[in-house]
Amino acid sequence: MDYIINTMSNLIHQSAFFNLTYGNYIMIVVALVFLYLAVAKGFEPLLLVPISFGMLLVNIYPDIMMSIEESSNGVGGLLHYFYLMDEWSILPSLIFLGVGAMTDFGPLIANPISFLMGAAAQLGIYLAYFLAIFMGFNGKAAAAISIIGGADGPTSIFLAGKLGQTALMGPIAVAAYSYMSLVPIIQPPIMKLFTTEKERKIKMQQLRTVTKLEKILFPVVVTIVVCMILPTTAPLVGMLMLGNLFRESGVVRQLMETASNALMYIVVILLGTSVGATTSAEAFLNIDTLKIVVLGLVAFAFGTMGGVLFGKLLCVITKGKINPLIGSAGVSAVPMAARVSQKVGAEADPTNFLLMHAMGPNVAGVIGTAVAAGTFMAIFGIGV
Model confidence over 87-128: pLDDT tens digits? Predict the structure, then answer.
């Protein structure tokens, strides 16, 4: 009888009900809210479903993220191994490979001035960097946090790992992916605030046709130029351009299809669940997390503003040939930010079609955010 009682007691006390804190229950509720937003509202489900489920798992069973050193039998938790690939920059770089294979850089090649709008939309990153230092973060932490302004989750994870800010990786990644999913909600009020109805109605001329040779040379030239100037950008920019070369060369269809489909979705599963699993109650429920969320919102808002204001400047210089709305797409949430530019423009004039024009600054923003990350790594003397 004692054996049965002891066995039952052990089973009961091994259940999560006896081991979770109030913080764990709060995070479980947060995970369920994220899951609801992903499934019921369609907010970036490919990202939020694995992130929210990873968040749910780690707060029910924290040992699923146990490191090898903490384990009594020398075997770490399942999601710990996924997370190591985040720390080692493997998964963010593979995401960029997939993005490159899925992206048409034609609009950027046809309208090179888009590079400037993509650069202007990085204003929020540098502003948030100094603001984070003012709020008490050290330089490396401030740099990792500020990249949220680019609305680029993989780059945020990449930089946090490279700068040794793994303790902040969970809040940074969740904030970055959350703002990516909330682009259609956050951006339109800012875009309308800084533009007039007349500007929003501007129709742009059709982009020129880009030749196949230009599309093949583009990833090669960008890799050489950017990586020669900032070698620290090689893991991100290099993988982005390699994926695009797969797409445009026309001779490695199998590699392009693998990178943009099967590999991409496998990496999203691994990255999403591991990012969610970094949000244990102990790591997430603190004042620094609140600061990161606020700083990320400020960075994203000012990035949108910077792109729009530079678009207004170009509108004046070109005597009304550029619609300032496309500048907001300079944040690197591809292709959602470009779609938002199209949506806001169509609200002003249903016959206006800005999507392809906005794709130029949008893909330029991906490169711009990677360059910003490489710049911070160079500042702090971090190699690739």
Answer: 888 999 999 999 999 999 999 999 999 999 999 999 999 999
How far does Cα 182 stand from its chain's mean position?
Answer: 12
The percentage of residues in the chain with a pLDDT greater than 70, rounded to a whole number, is 95
For residue 160, the one-letter residue type is: A
**Sorting pLDDT into bands at 50, 70 and 90, what band is 9?**
low
Compute the residue count for the chain. 384
The DSSP result for 250-289, as a single string, is SS-HHHHHHHHTHHHHHHHHHHHHHHHTT--HHHHSSHHH
Q: Is the peptide bond before 171 cis (omega within 30 degrees of 0)?
A: no
**192 close to 304: Cβ distance less than 8 angstroms:** no
Q: Residue 237 has what DSSP assignment?
A: I
Q: Which of 58, 123, 69, 105 is nearest to 331 (CA)?
A: 123
Q: Which residues contact 187 (CB under 8 A, 6 or more apart)?
A: 304, 328, 337, 340, 344
- pLDDT band of residue 137 (cuts 50, 70, 90) is very high
The span from the CA of 185 to the CA of 138, in Å, is 31
DSSP one-letter code for 334: T
